[in-house]
Design a protein that fits this description.
single chain, mainly beta, Immunoglobulin-like, globular, ten-stranded antiparallel beta sheet, 200 residues, five-stranded antiparallel beta sheet
Length: 200
């Protein structure tokens, strides 16, 4: 259980993708403090039929989506700007800033390094990632957020499948605004319950 958990759901595999392994990917979202968002991705199923990058020293690395990795897209509600975070089971990570749909690129800031913890057992793979929002310059302190959560899974045949809370029509596209369906309010001092909405 993550601190102040406020949302949980299951990712959906894109209908045009096939994956050898029978998998369920659950996601949970919460706050560790007013400016740190905690994400947990729990993959359950036949782990022997997926490829998972081996553990490495945490560092910022490009093109993590070419193998199994977990992703989050975060922006301020009502604004076109958003950020992309990639979390690999290797504990490598990446961050990108976009001013509008796919208009942007990598962020050269090691201060954004998320805290990533990985636990793997025979039939489960769990990734915890804590993101610092105070370094995301386009998101105002105390702003409500719009979030998309997703994953790329590489199976034993090196084929990739794409998983998300919601897939827009067409090919897999985690950047599409229709995929950032989770709307989260910031935690308030002295208030234990945290409101959220999820657009259909």
């Amino acid at each position: 259980m993550i601190p102040n958990e406020l949302y949980s759901s299951t990712l959906i595999r894109h209908p045009e993708n096939y994956c050898h392994a029978e998998l369920v990917i659950e996601v949970r979202v919460g706050w560790t403090d007013p400016r740190s968002l905690s994400l947990t991705y729990l993959l359950k199923g036949d782990n022997a039929r997926i490829r998972v990058p081996p553990p490495r020293t945490p560092c910022r690395t490009a093109r993590l989506w070419e193998h199994s990795c977990f992703e989050a897209f975060v922006g301020e509600l009502g604004k076109p700007e958003y950020y992309e975070f990639n979390f690999s089971p290797s504990r490598e990570w990446a961050a990108y800033c976009f001013y509008d749909y796919r208009d942007g690129g990598p962020i050269d800031d090691d201060g954004l390094e998320p805290k990533i913890a990985v636990r793997r057992e025979a039939e489960t793979l769990e990734i915890d990632a804590v993101m610092r929002l105070d370094r995301l310059l386009t998101i105002a302190q105390g702003a409500s957020l719009r979030i998309g959560l997703s994953a790329v899974i590489e199976d034993s045949d090196s084929r990739l499948s794409y998983w998300a809370l919601k897939h827009p029509p067409g090919k897999p596209d985690f950047h599409h605004p229709d995929g950032l369906i989770l709307e989260i309010q910031p935690p308030l001092a002295g208030v234990d319950s945290i409101a959220y909405t999820s657009k259909p």
